[in-house]
Design brief:
By secondary structure, this protein is mostly helical. The chain contains three helices and two strands, in the order ββααα. A two-stranded antiparallel sheet has the order 1-2. The longest helix has 17 residues. The chain is globular. The relative contact order is 0.21.
């Protein structure tokens, strides 16, 4: 299984509460840590964490999912599974 690409999609505007990026939901510390992930399994786990964080923050990151899927396809692979990691909060069901 090929290593998935890094989760950053190149927008990087940390304006949301807590310093989260408006595009991917990563904080500056998370982005720095994501650059050090070298194994595919580490990146897949981080992507699962990021999706859970996005859901917890309110599900306003659909643009990231689309851009990240395109990036994965461009590199010739499928994006990591959409499954939530064990213990992750369920996606918000509130209307936007």
């Amino acid at each position: 299984m090929p290593k998935p690409p890094k989760p950053c999609i190149g927008v990087c505007k940390h304006r949301l509460g807590g310093g989260h990026c408006i595009a991917c939901s990563m904080t500056k510390a998370q982005k720095k840590a994501s650059k050090r992930l070298s194994k595919g399994s580490e990146r897949r786990a981080f992507i699962a964490f990021l999706r859970a964080q996005q859901a917890w923050l309110g599900g306003r990151f659909k643009g990231w999912e689309i851009a990240y899927r395109r990036r994965c396809a461009k590199r010739g692979g499928d994006p990591p599974s959409d499954a939530r990691p064990e213990g992750a909060p369920p996606p918000s069901r509130e209307a936007a």
